[in-house]
Design a protein that fits this description.
The chain contains 14 helices and eleven strands. By secondary structure, the protein is α/β, with parallel strands linked by helices. It has two domains: 154 residues, Aspartate/ornithine carbamoyltransferase (Rossmann fold), CATH 3.40.50.1370; 167 residues, Aspartate/ornithine carbamoyltransferase (Rossmann fold, 3-Layer(aba) Sandwich), CATH 3.40.50. Strands 9-8-7-10-11 form a five-stranded parallel sheet. Strands 2-1-5-6 form a four-stranded parallel sheet, with helices on both faces. Helix 1 packs across helix 14, helix 6 crosses helix 7 and helix 6 packs across helix 14. It binds phosphoric acid mono(formamide)ester. The site of phosphoric acid mono(formamide)ester (CP) has 9 residues, from helix 2.
Amino acid sequence: MPSTSSSPTSDTTTDLRHVLRIDDFSDATWDALRRSAVVHRRDETRGAGTAAGRSLGLVFMNPSLRTRTSMEGAAAHLGAHHTTLVPGDGSWGLEWEEGAVMDGDAAEHVKEAIGVLSRYHDALGVRVFASGTNYAADTQDALIRTIADHATVPVVNLESAWAHPCQGLSDAALLTERLGDDLTGKSVVLSWAPHPKPLPMAVPNTALRTAARCGMDVTVARPETHALDPDLMAEAQSVADAQGGSVTTSTDQDAAAEDADVVYAKSWGGPLMYEDPTQEAEARAAHADWRITEALMARTRDGAFMHCLPVRRNVVADDAVLDGPHAAHLDQAEYRLHAQKALLQHVWGLH
Ligand code: CP
């Protein structure tokens, strides 16, 4: 895994259409993209040929099923070429440290790797997860910003420490399709769920920001110990206020689910996993009853069950939920393909 000890870089101020967080989109672009994704899902031509001759470079520092295959599929549908690299597994292991004396295992510095890939491709998609140990670097998304600083073509964040914009846009498109174009007044519960491991915050951060951006009423339901980052919560509150929505917090999962339109389940370690991993593990183990059950879903207003996947059955959510009438997680995963076609067209200025 890359080190996170290098200084976080500042926001990249170029005219490149980097997509590092959903906040990189203007309101007009955000609405156009979620609508475009819905159109792509219905488009029998599959966007064929609209990006013919373009080339997409994909770099995965961490495992993926959906993001990798849906980005490759999106490029194929649009007629673009793609290359996928896994550093250290078929391509050179990368050094991230500025000024490093590279006498260890890493054969290539990220500066050269991203610089070269920028010469070959018209956009780069990069996945690089949180360190899980350096909170300051993770909250500032230091690694994906380093990538953007070294790239000379647009960079699409395929999940970083703090954000997963492709997931957010896909989720917004699914919500638009299911609940209507105007999502103001619709309610979503972002529910913490149990997990054997302390998971990072990119997805819950993005799910919260996505719902706020759509003007929804969001309740973050979680045990007392598993708050999200307070600055992130304040930012989401501000976004929701501007969009006619709201953000509230609850430690009562049952009450939060009452009459909800959506239950979005996700596990996260929260700031506590950085501050006191032992206490976080104990608290996580003590809240196994936060698993998503049919009884919980029955409290909703015929609510949709969402999860970004992968999901651990009967730990995060029961089989009865995942195989039952509330389940929307496969549609949600399918939307990755359609949303990323819209996203690539945006990044390449094709609409
Ligand atoms: N939701 C998501 O990003 O899935 P993968 O980790 O499989 O890409």
